[in-house]
Amino acid sequence: MELRDKAKLLFAWFNDHYEEMLGKIELIVNMDSFSHDGKDVNVLGETVCSFFEGTDFITEKAAKKECPEDEPWQAELGNVFTARTHKKEDGAGIVFLAHMDTVFPKGTAGKRPFYFDKENDRAYGPGIVDMKSGLIMNIFVARALKELGLVSCPITLTFSPDEEIGSPSALPVLQDELKNALVSFCSEPGYVGNGVTIERKGSGHILLEITGKSSHAGRAYAEGASAILELAHKILAFDKYVDLSRDKTVNTGIIKGGTSANSVAPNAMARIHLTYKTLEEGERLVEAIKEEAAKTYVEGTRTSLSGGLRLPPLVPNAGAKKLYEFVKNAGEMIQYVPFVEASKGAAESGFCSSVLKIPSICSMGPEGGFLHNEKEYIIPSTIIPRCELIALASIQAADYFHK
């Protein structure tokens, strides 16, 4: 069967399942799955696995790896869930990556649930574009390829619990789950106007914890040692490493500390996010942050640092460029021609590319925008053509890479 004939079969299949896709997007958008609420994320994982009932896919809740000693909080994160067409020992084959977590705290979905503005071709809700719609797309693409018998090699889907905080617990699991993978497609948000990406920045996540000495802020200020003041000095020192001309950022996104306004603060903490273009630059940036954190500005305070590099960059190597050729060929066939956009955000596609050396392409999800924002949206009319792009590129990749 020619690829063009397969494209017709796929279009009909996706068209028949479009309303079902929308319904499942609505269902999971209306479920809270904040990265740090592992129980909520796992409920979503069980729900996602239920979408494979009645199919030949093998689903599993993967066991977690041991937490790093200096990051025990990872034990509270959710699990990676997987779905496969073949047994694990047969290899991962074609991989579809997705994450279940969002940046929105518990209760957000109830406050602003899924909303479909059909007239204006927009759908809204927390995490709808980053990346719950892409997650659902992956499921239906895999189902279509399997049910229509369009690829013979294994298909593996992964659903990560903590990508928004750099996949600290997911990456060791993915390293085990994705052995012998041929290629990976990641359905992070697509760029408006048919954009996909074969290049992403890497990310880092650092937790800074400072202890000081409490005292009465009026009567005995000099007897105290302010952890908050120490943190303020360090934040300003970190900010010196921001270089937007080189796409390098250091963002202190969360700070907490102190006990009362009239007490010298005995504690403070901050969560810091880094981005960088190359793995080497990321390593240098982390070392610089560690050196700054080791300095003491307020006598009597102590600082501890944990974390570091998380998601490495997605590299536009030969494998990624070959996948883009397949995607572009598919787009020309269905009259939805893509373009390449370099992304300033990190994703698990970078881990597949830089660490696992798997040819990878990203931003294959539906078009949309306002990520991590109350205005976050998708363009529903792009769901079917985007599904076709992934499916047709997967068929070509299976023929090319599956020897």
UniProtKB/TrEMBL annotation:
Keywords: Hydrolase, Metal-binding, Zinc
Xref: PROSITE patterns: ARGE_DAPE_CPG2_2
Cofactors that this protein relies on: Zn(2+)
Location of the Peptidase M20 dimerisation domain: 198-300
Designated name of the protein: M20/M25/M40 family metallo-hydrolase
Natural source organism: Taurinivorans muris
